[in-house]
Each structure stands twice: as structure tokens, then as C-alpha cells.
Amino acid sequence: MINIRVVLFFVFVGICKVQAQEIIVENDAQEQKEVKEKDTSGVFKRVKVDGVAAVVGDYIVLSSDVDKEFLQLEASGVNVKDITRCQLFGKLLENKLYAHHAVQDSIIVSDAEIRRSVDYQIQQFLAQVGGDMKKLLAFYKKDDEQSFRDEIFTINKANMLASRMQASIIEDVEVTPEEVRQFFNKIPEDQKPTFGTELKVAQIVVQPKVSREEKQKVIDRLKEFKKDVDENGASFKSKVILYGEDPGLRQSGYIYTLNRKQPRMVKEFRQTAFSLQEGELSDPFETEFGFHIIQCVKIRGQEYDVSHLLLKPKVSSESIKEAKEKISKVRQRIIDGEITFAEAAREVSDEKETKYTGGQLINPETQDYNFELTRMDPELYAQVQDLKDNEVSLVHTESDRTNNIKFKILTITDRIEDHKADYAKDFLKIKQQALNEKKIKTIEKWQAEKIEDTYIKITGSYRDCQFSSNWLKK
């Protein structure tokens, strides 16, 4: 049972679900009922009407919600073969419990943030039906777009509240080294996990340089845009739509919401945004993504709604050629023994995160230098799978997260063959497992306490479920 709960716990944290729900005030839960209606021949037949399966605080779960949850999980790539209706129904009860207490604890989700999520979600839906809104409305049995948007808005708000309530429950959970040791020692010897082959990987990155002239050209163009808006009243949003090069901005409705308490965006972007008054437009400034001007659209306490116009300086073909020649020469020097890989990284690498550690990559999941071969990023795996230890790869061409071209070479600096978990060698992995277990126990304790303090009523056949939590308050 604990395994399926762990799976559902992590699945539901990240999924934004589309399900029927509503807030109730005084109505008690009602059983799913049967009514009579005529078919095309005029004969009466019995038809099941969707009813309330459960009430949790101010929220309800409809009988149809379980079916919709199965469809949503399958659409998200989850294998539902071993998930029962009772387990999924129990998870829906948990979701409503989180949302109810998020409201009680004054956890806030802004309407602007929800509307942007709705816009993005509908764009994703439309992409699946060839952009045909009529087909989309017919599929979800909605009469018009606004009612569809309103329903998704209500659903997303409850889901965001639930997600943030869950996050707040475990945000301060930590494990001490002694707790990690106790966690590891209580695992029977024949059940200790086995970790696959692990590699330590280093890389050297060389990026083509952008000329000063090209940078100044972009800055001057942004200044012209700013002048046209400030002095002539031109529409900033129109310029963003026509000329902006931030692909993520359209998906968010051309608005980003920044919060002083929640880091988002690079430092230069945040500093500039929070220095603006409502309606003000910034001067051009540079980040690793290119050059920007920002407009502050709305200020709501700690939250700033901003839009921005991003332009990326173009890299010349000559710069690209020079960069490739540079890294090719460095590779040959390493192979000839003139310089070590680590020395070459410090000398020529343009990747500041690894330059001063000899090019050594950090695993983003474990925050150490080890990469488990079977869990490695597919692109990185393809680049190193055939390398012998200390062998230097051929020059690879790829784009970084800002979509700028770069060239790199890689090497394997160490290899650890597959082995049974060792407390000293695998401390960080064991620590993460111990932390996950403690988070699950923290959530279980919170649920047990809140179930007792919350109005909950379950109707119909779901009262026969064997829940892991005391939803029936027996």
C-alpha cells in the first residue's frame, strides 16, 4: 500500500487536473440518483445522474471525478493498471482536504496567475484538436468558451491551493545525519538498494562571441522602442508580440508575475523589475538571455506583473568558426599531453559553473558529482556512453538554455561500478530517501489530524472502500 501511495503522492503534486467540482455552502451530500427520460422511440429508460460522492469541508467530489482522474493520469503517461478506484478516490479526498485548509490558512493564489495557467492549458488543449475551439468545446461538452474557461479557472484555483498547502506542510522538513543513519540501519541487509554504475563527467564549453557592434545595435533598437512608447504612446504589448524573442512569454499571456519572496527569473531581471513604478518602462539591460526592456504592468503588494521585450544579439558565422577551431585545438593539446583536461577547462571554458572545478559536472538531482548511468539525461548519456575513462570526446555542437550555439568536449574522470548501497559512498542518495520518507510521514500525520477536525461525508459504494486514512472516521 505504501508503494502506491508514494507513487500517487508524487504524481499528484505535479499534475494540474481537469475535473468537475464546486464549492458548497449548506447542501448535504446526496447519493447518485436515477431518473427516467424518454429515448428516441418515446420509451422511458433509467439514466444515472452524476451526484455527490463525498464532501470535504467546503468542497465536494462528484461521482464522475474518479473516471476523469483515470483519464487524466493516462493522458499524463501514468500506468493506472495497479491503481484502484478506491485509491484514486482517496487521493481526491486528500486533494480537497488540502484545498479546504489552504483557504483556512489564508494561502493565496492570485487570479492573474490562475488566468495565465488557464490560457496556457487551453492552448495545449487546442493544439491536440488542431486549434478548433468548437471541437474542444464539444469534447468537453461545453456550450461556449467562457463557461469552459470559468470551469477550468475554478478547478485550477483549487488545485493550486492544494499544491501550495501540501508544499507548506513539508517545506521545513529536514533530516539530520543521525536520522539518515537510523533510516539506513533499519533497512534489512537483503533489502538494501543497489545503485547502478556511476560516472563522474567533466566538460569544456566554448561559445561563439557576440561583437560589441552587434550588442550596441540591439541596445539602440530597444531604446527606439522605449522612446516610441514613452513619447508617442505606442503600445508596448504590440511591440512585444511583434518583435519579442521570449518564447515563454506568449504562453503566460505576455505577463510574468514576480514575487519578492519567491525567486524567479535571473537576478538582473528581478532587480530591474522591482525598481519600476506601475506603468514605468525600464532602460535596456543585459542578462544571459540577451537584452531586455521591462514594463511594470501592475503592483499588488509583494507581487509585480511585468511584461518585457527580449532581443538576442546575432552571432556571426566568423565567430562560430573561431569558436569551433578554438575547442578543436584545445582537444588536440589534451590528447597530446600538453595540458590536462582540468587545466584546459580553467584556461578556455566559457561555462562559469564548471570552469573553476576542472569542468566537473554536478548532478542536479543529487548535488554531487556522480551520475548513475541508467538515470542520466539522455543527451548526456549519448555523448559519454562509449567513452573510456579519461578519453576525450569528439567536439559536440548543441544549444544552451538560452538557445545560443556552443561547442563542447567531455571526458569521464571516474567510474564506480554497480554496487549495494554503502552509507559512506552513497550518503547523499540515502539522505534523499530518508527525507522522502520523513515528508510522507509528515503529510500522513497532518492528514490524520485534519481529518478529525474537518467535516467529511462519504456516500454510496465508496463507503465500502478500505482507505489508508480514516476518511470514514470509524
What does this structure look like?
This protein is of the alpha+beta class and 474 residues long. The chain contains 16 helices and 15 strands. A four-stranded antiparallel sheet has the order 11-6-13-12. Strands 7-10-9-8 form a four-stranded antiparallel sheet, with helices on both faces. β9 and β10 form a beta hairpin. α3 crosses α6 and α7 packs across α16. The chain starts with a helix and ends in a 16-residue tail after the last strand.
DSSP, total strands: 15
Shape: globular
Percent helix: 40-55%
How much of the sequence lies in strands comes to 15-25%
Helix-and-strand structural type: alpha+beta
Largest sheet: 4 strands, antiparallel
How many helices? The count is 16
Q: What's the N-to-C terminus distance? A: 20 Å
Gyration radius over CA: 28 Å
Low-pLDDT runs of 5+ residues are 1-49
Mean pLDDT figure = 85
In order across it, which strands form the biggest sheet?
11-6-13-12
